[in-house]
Write a structure and sequence with these properties.
The complex is a heterotrimer of chains A (112), B (496) and C (312).
Chain A lengths: L5 H24 L3 H27 L5 H32 L16
Helix pairs in contact in A: 1-2, 2-3
Chain B lengths: L10 H19 L4 H26 L2 E4 L10 E4 L1 H20 L12 H21 L4 H20 L3 H29 L4 H6 L4 H19 L8 H7 L2 H26 L5 H25 L3 H16 L2 H4 L12 H31 L10 H4 L1 H15 L5 H15 L3 H26 L12 H19 L2 H8 L5 H4 L4
Antiparallel strand pairs in B: 1-2
Helix pairs in contact in B: 1-2, 1-4, 2-3, 3-4, 3-10, 3-14, 3-19, 3-20, 4-5, 4-10, 5-6, 5-10, 6-8, 6-9, 8-10, 9-10, 9-12, 10-12, 10-14, 11-12, 11-18, 12-14, 12-18, 14-16, 14-17, 14-19, 16-18, 16-19, 17-18, 17-19
Chain C lengths: L2 H22 L3 H21 L3 H28 L11 H24 L8 H7 L8 H9 L1 H19 L10 E2 L10 H24 L6 H17 L11 H23 L11 H25 L2 E3 L2
Antiparallel strand pairs in C: 1-2
Helix pairs in contact in C: 1-2, 2-3, 3-9, 3-11, 6-7, 7-10, 7-11, 8-9, 8-11, 9-11, 10-11
Classes of the chains: A mainly alpha (112), B mainly alpha (496), C mainly alpha (312).
């Protein structure tokens, strides 16, 4: 099978746009923080896919290496933040026995 | 644009290299020695930023092409006046807080979680702040901002897991929006370099969408009303030295990127609606943050809500730059006023949080109702708090006064009466919410029993508060520095 | 419609269905399982876009390690009894969320379609300078030379994330061993794998770094392979994690960013921050990459293991 064509690249870029939408949906509907963290990762990979596909569409001859390098950096950064978010979530569950952040009353956000 | 001569002192580079090296060294050395690194790094950074300020003032803006690769292939560091003043502010506040934190985050006996982990986070935060203030590449700014977020969230987590998680979620959402904006901008222009982007002509719609996404993301990180919900619990519950860094410096980092985007990269696409929106949100922040500050019962929460309010003023530079305001005696008066406000607030807020930290160390709490007479036990600390309050309220001759005076003059010259009224109301409200704790601290006629707080540590908030006031008296050097390489849009205005 | 386009359309559809299952599925564990499959499919999409380096990174880090982090969190939350919430989201909330996310997707799609074709990006600029970069793989050239400053900061981001996770350690177990104790029978299948894989993993990792200069691969991919092997060895109960107070461990953590920063600083002393002289470019870049691989492997493995939980 030959490499992806320009039409395919557009297809992948549009898929990226829809993935971002799916991630936003997950972020809004779920209160459970692990599901929100997962949704963030879907949004991130959607952005990356769009970035790469647009670079492909532009370069026409393989994907622009600069977006590829930026995406690899972005993937590592996303993992770093996910790791901290997960660790904080586990600690919250240990401390408070919950995995959500119910809305606080403004002005009463006393954390102790 | 003058590049530094070969062999010129690499001040800008050192501002990145030194704190990064300190962070790695802290991880290696462990919690017993790591706190002492500050005692070397602090003075070194003060000297290097002073040299940089001198370079910028005498030779004009500095631009460093990293690795010798020119943009758009490589990444550049920008050393203009805007970067210069924030780098100096960072060096001052970071050094002060680092010396202050020797006690709460030092270790006399065995290494602890706090004494080990705080220092790598602190030095990495310093590196990240510097990287943001002089960053010239939008994607590199993203990486630096994420480093900053990691360190800031971890510092909040010392105080409250819940507040840290809330902060992280806001910051993550903000990062993704910012990243999306970058992706669109690169796809349309093929570059991420701020100076090159400023010269690019692409489809206006793409730039508008990407500018809006980047700004929305950065506003969440700056905590501009109504995206401020995470800030008070985070800044209010973090340990005092961390709160000082967060309120004084961290939120300014994303603000400076917003300024670079709209004053350097794409001033032409902003439009009146966008500029008005920012000024309405800013006014909302001033009023809402101040009113909530009045309702708080803990000293640190008052200071945190005051940050929400004071942030609002920064966004008045968008409607006030240019217009009839250009006819006031100061070139770019409103823009410079906004930046002065950021500097004065940075110094005053760091002083206040450190003072509150000493009150907590002395009393074990910071409930306003129960701090009666603390001013007699910690006179220097409360004097520092009072001086910082003078600057925050905008009373002469403080730095806060000069900042508000410049912005107010611009607003009146431009006929923006609404904004002028909001600024005046904000000053009165600040007086009201700061009067309460000061009044309680002075109340009674006895000296309350408190834990021992060493004399020299009380001098740190005092020094910061004095600097915040002095900024209004010795205002010329920072003002002149700020003008070097200033965007011409700062004079002409965004929406003209 | 060509066969290639048809394949790509099918792949896109599959990606979307699996992503939706990961986001909207009922159970938490099922959602995570779908997320890992989703990561693999995204890697496949990257192969179609001829981005093999990114495909490796997505599969190893995006799907593999992120998936392990999520599963680890799930099992902890399950023990605490908070791995799910009673009842799903309400219908009005779903409708509102659907409308918002639909609008987001539509707006982005419209922006994508409005971008003109035929923009070359930086491909030509990279190709032109590739000969002076010391490596033949353009992605490695960007990561380790043209935009080395990004990669330096990124390696610090990863390291600081670990310190941030460690900062959550209760005082009583500071300096202790990460994660929970693993018990495995020494004759189990996992144990056999645990013995066989380390030498194999090491060879693959060294190859990935070496090959990364001319073919897809590099420090981050190689580090992930090593980290995965180590995690398996620990799971098999053959070795335990090192305590966070270990001096050697701390040295391994900072080695990569340290070497990288040192090269950058020496450059600055000679007038070009992060400058890599053309004559020494290849050995210099390979040295940085090998040091980075070690640090990345250790950091990633410890990130997945979580904060110290047991006394040393």
């Amino acid at each position: 099978m030959s490499g992806a064509g320009l039409d395919s690249a557009t297809l992948f870029a549009l898929t990226g746009a829809i993935l971002i939408g799916i991630g936003v949906y997950g972020f809004i509907v779920h209160a459970h923080l692990l599901r929100r963290i997962l949704a963030f990762n879907v949004i991130g990979s959607g952005i990356f896919l769009m970035f790469g596909a647009l670079g492909f569409r532009g370069a026409g001859n393989g994907t622009d290496p600069v977006p590829q390098a930026l995406i690899i950096t972005g993937i590592v950064v996303a993992l770093s933040l996910t790791a901290l978010a997960v660790a904080l979530l586990v600690k919250l569950a240990e401390e408070e026995g919950g995995a959500t952040l119910p809305e606080e009353q403004p002005g009463r956000g006393e954390a102790e | 644009m003058t590049a530094p001569l070969p062999g010129a002192f690499p001040a800008l580079e050192l501002l990145i290299v030194l704190p990064l090296a300190a962070s790695l060294l802290a991880i290696l050395l462990g919690g017993r020695l790591a706190p002492r690194i500050v005692l070397l790094l602090g003075p070194a950074m003060l000297v290097v930023t002073a040299v940089l300020a001198f370079q910028i003032q005498t030779q004009g803006p500095v631009r460093v092409e990293i690795g010798g690769w020119e943009a758009p292939l490589g990444i550049a560091l920008i050393g203009d006046g805007l970067a210069g003043v924030f780098l100096v502010l960072t060096a001052i506040v970071m050094t002060a807080v680092g010396v202050f934190a020797q006690k709460p985050f030092g270790s006399e006996g065995a290494e602890t979680t706090e004494s080990y982990t705080f220092w790598p986070l602190y030095f990495a935060m310093w590196a990240a702040l510097n990287a943001v203030f002089c960053g010239g590449d939008l994607f590199n700014l993203y990486v630096a901002l994420e480093l900053l977020t990691l360190t800031a969230v971890a510092m909040v987590a010392y105080g409250s897991t819940r507040a840290a998680l809330r902060y992280l979620l806001f910051a993550l959402a903000g990062s993704l929006a910012y990243l999306m904006g970058i992706v669109l901008l690169y796809s349309a222009t093929g570059t991420l370099d701020i100076e090159l982007l400023a010269r690019q002509d692409t489809i206006e719609a793409t730039r508008m969408v990407s500018g809006a996404l980047m700004t929305a993301g950065l506003l969440a990180k700056t905590a501009l009303f109504p995206l401020h919900g995470w800030l008070p619990p985070a800044h209010g519950s973090a340990p005092a030295p961390a709160s000082a860094l967060l309120s004084s410096l961290v939120i300014k980092a994303s603000f400076v990127i917003i300024v670079r985007i709209w004053f350097d990269v794409m001033p032409d696409v902003a439009g009146t609606v966008f500029v008005q929106l920012l000024s309405i949100l800013g006014a909302g922040a001033v009023l809402y943050g101040s009113l909530l500050a009045l309702r708080q019962t803990r000293l640190k929460m008052i200071i945190a809500y005051s940050t929400v309010a004071q942030l609002g003023y920064l966004f008045f530079i968008f409607p006030l730059a240019g217009g009839a305001a250009a006819e006031t005696p100061w070139a770019a008066g409103a823009w410079s006023g906004g930046m002065f406000h950021a500097l004065a607030h940075g110094l005053a807020k760091a002083a206040m949080f450190l003072a509150a930290g000493l009150v907590i160390e002395a009393l074990g709490h910071d409930r306003i109702d129960d701090i009666k007479g603390i001013a007699r036990a910690l006179p220097l600390t409360m004097f520092a708090f009072g001086l910082a309050a003078v600057s925050l309220m905008g009373l002469p001759p403080s730095g806060g006064f000069l900042a508000k005076y410049l912005m107010l003059t611009a607003a009146l010259a431009d006929g923006q009466i609404g904004l002028a009224l909001v600024m005046l109301a904000g000053g009165l409200l600040a007086a009201a919410y700061l009067f309460r704790p000061v009044n309680r601290a002075l109340a009674g006629d006895y000296v309350p029993e408190v834990a021992v707080v060493t004399y020299w540590r009380q001098l740190i908030p005092l020094g910061l508060a004095l600097l915040s006031v002095a900024l209004g008296i010795i205002s010329e050097p920072p003002y002149d520095l700020l003008q070097v390489g200033r965007s011409k849009v700062a004079v002409e205005g965004i929406d003209d | 419609m060509t066969a290639a386009l048809l394949f790509d359309a099918g792949l896109c559809l599959l990606v979307l269905v699996v992503a939706f299952s990961a986001v909207a599925g009922r159970g938490l564990f099922g959602a995570i399982a779908f997320f890992i499959i989703y990561g693999m499919l995204i890697a496949l999409a990257w192969l179609r876009l001829e981005g093999v380096d990114v495909a490796l990174a997505e599969a190893a880090i995006g799907a593999g390690l992120t998936g392990m982090l999520l599963i680890g969190a799930w099992s902890m939350l399950k023990q605490l009894g908070v791995s799910g919430l009673p009842g799903g989201p309400s219908v009005p909330l779903r409708i509102a969320a659907g409308a918002v996310s639909g609008l987001v997707a539509l707006a982005l799609a419209a922006t994508v379609l409005a971008l003109p074709d035929g923009r070359e990006g930086l491909s030509p600029a990279v190709a032109e300078s590739l000969g002076r970069s010391g490596v033949d793989n353009p992605v490695t050239a960007v990561l380790l030379n043209f935009r080395a400053y990004d990669t330096l900061l990124e390696s610090v981001v990863l390291l600081i994330a670990l310190i941030a996770v460690w900062s959550l350690t209760p005082r009583a177990v500071w300096g202790g061993v990460p994660g929970l104790a693993q018990h495995a029978r020494s004759d189990g299948v996992l144990s056999m794998f645990g013995r066989l894989l380390p030498p194999l993993g090491l060879v693959v990792a060294i190859y990935l770094v070496w090959a990364g200069s001319s073919q897809p691969g590099g420090a981050f991919q190689a580090g992930t392979v090593l980290a995965a092997v180590w995690l398996l060895v620990v799971m098999a109960g053959l070795y335990d994690e090192p305590p966070a107070s270990s001096r050697n461990l701390r040295l391994a953590l900072v080695a990569g960013p340290g070497v990288f920063l040192a090269v950058g600083a020496v450059g600055a002393a000679f007038g070009v921050f992060m400058g890599i002289p053309e004559g020494f470019a290849k050995p210099l870049i390979l040295s940085i990459e090998f040091a980075l691989t070690v640090s990345i492997a250790v950091t990633l493995a410890l990130l997945v293991a979580g904060r110290p939980r047991r006394p040393a």
